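Per reviewer request, we include the raw input and output of the structure prediction for the construct analysed in the revised manuscript.
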Amino acid sequence: MAMQIEFYITPDGDVTIREYGKPERQLLETDTEFVQKFKSVISDFYPEAYTALLDIYSKSKLSKSYYDFLIVRRFIKCNFSLYDNTIDL
């Protein structure tokens, strides 16, 4: 994933993404390409967090896209929620 991204958590708890050169937008379950790439990053670079998230959201496993979305959203909320001038990824 060779892009520059800044994340922000709205007051309502939604995750927004601002990719370099693109407008800010809300992260949605339908963002499957982004979710799959980011899930792979979590798995590769944060294996303990990834394992914990798999367990936390195991009840949602039957709906793969929702399950993956919950994992990625939670990781972003816990680790990249500060809206600043520093690119998160």
